[in-house]
Amino acid sequence: MDKASIADRLPFLQRRQYIINAIRAFFDARGYLEVDTPYMVATPGEEVHLTPFATLYETPQGKEKRFFFHTSPEFAMKRIVAAIQRPIYQLARVWRNREGGPTHLPEFTMLEWYRPHCNLQGLMDETENLLRVILPPIVEHQKGRIDISQPFERLTLQQAFERYVGIDLLETGNDAIQLSKAANYPLRPYETWEDLFFRILLEKIEPYIGLERPTFLTHWPVSQAALARRDPRDLRVALRFELYAAGLELCNAFEELTDPKEQRSRFIEDRKQRKKLYPEVEEWPMDEELLEALHTMPPCSGIAMGLDRVVMLATRARHIEDILWI
C-alpha cells in the first residue's frame, strides 16, 4: 500500500486530535487523574502471546541494564491505583513486536483507564458513554452502518458459541478433542484447546458481531483472562470483556484480580507456557512491586482501548497508517 502524504491525510489527523481532546475532557470531568508512566521498564508484561522490544541501557558508570518497551502500561498503572486509591487514565505509546497489517502496527497508542470500586457492568456503561462522546451517532463501514446511539449488545462467550457455533463452550473445559468434536472442527496437528478456541472465534463469531451496534463479548474462560478475577457465580469464567465494532476489536477489559497469591500463580503458569511456545523470547524479572501493591489494591476495573482503531472507525480510514503522523 502506498501511504498518502501527511497533507493528504490531514483531515484524518485533525479528527484524531479532536478525539484525543474529547477523551481528556470526558475523563477530567469525571474526576480521573491523567498519569504518565515509564515506557522503558524491567518487566514489559506477562501476556503469553505478546513479544516485547528489548533495549540496553548503558549507565554513566559503564554498567549495562536490560530493559523493555512496555506492551501495556497496566502494571505501572495498577501500582498507582493501589497507592492513591483514585481513578486514573493514560494515553500511552506501547510496543508489540511481530505485529503488522491494516489494523496493527508494532508501535501504537493505547487509552487505558482504571476505576476503583467499579464492576464490569459499570465499566461497560462508562465505555458506551465515552464512545457516544467521541464517535458520530451513525458510523458507516464496509459491511453497513453501526448505530452508536442504541444500547450496545452484551453477549457472553458462552452465549456467542451457542448462537454462532451451536455448542456449550464451557462443557469442553480445556479438552481440545472434545471442543473439536462438539464444533465439528477437525483438530490440526499439535493444536491445543486454546488454539482451536481462537480459530473458531475468529472464523465463526467475530465476523458476525458488532455490525449493527457495538458488541461487548463478556465472561471469558478463566484460562483466557490471566489478570481478571473469577466470576463468583461461575468459577469457570473470568470477569473480562472485549468490545467489537465493524470487524474491529476496540478494547479489552477486566474486573481486576487483586489476590497477589493467585496472580503470582497465574504469572508462573504464563511463563511456563511462553517458554514452551516461544523459547527464543528472553526472560525478564517478575514485577514484585506489582504483586506487593495488590495487597492494597481496591476492588477495581480496568480497560485498554486501541485509540488508533477508534479513530479509524470514526474516519472510515482503511489502514491504520492513514490516521498517524508518520
Quickly list its features.
326 residues; alpha+beta; BirA Bifunctional Protein, domain 2; nine-stranded mixed beta sheet; three-stranded antiparallel beta sheet; globular
Overview of this structure, please?
It is a single chain. By secondary structure, the chain is of the alpha+beta class. It has a single domain (10-152, 213-323), classed as Bira Bifunctional Protein, Domain 2 (BirA Bifunctional Protein, domain 2, 2-Layer Sandwich), CATH 3.30.930.10. Helices cover 33% and strands 25% of the residues. The protein is built from nine helices and 14 strands. It has helices spanning 10-29, 74-84, 120-134, 157-164, 176-183, 193-205, 260-277, 288-293, 307-315, and strands at residues 33-34, 40-41, 53-58, 64-69, 88-95, 107-116, 138-141, 144-147, 153-156, 215-221, 230-231, 234-245, 248-255, 300-306. Strands 1, 5, 6, 9, 10, 11, 12, 13 and 14 form a nine-stranded mixed sheet that branches. It is globular, with a radius of gyration of 20 Å.
What does this entry show, briefly?
With 326 residues, this protein is an alpha+beta fold. The chain has a single domain (10-152, 213-323), classed as 2-Layer Sandwich (BirA Bifunctional Protein, domain 2), CATH 3.30.930. 33% of the residues lie in helices and 25% in strands.
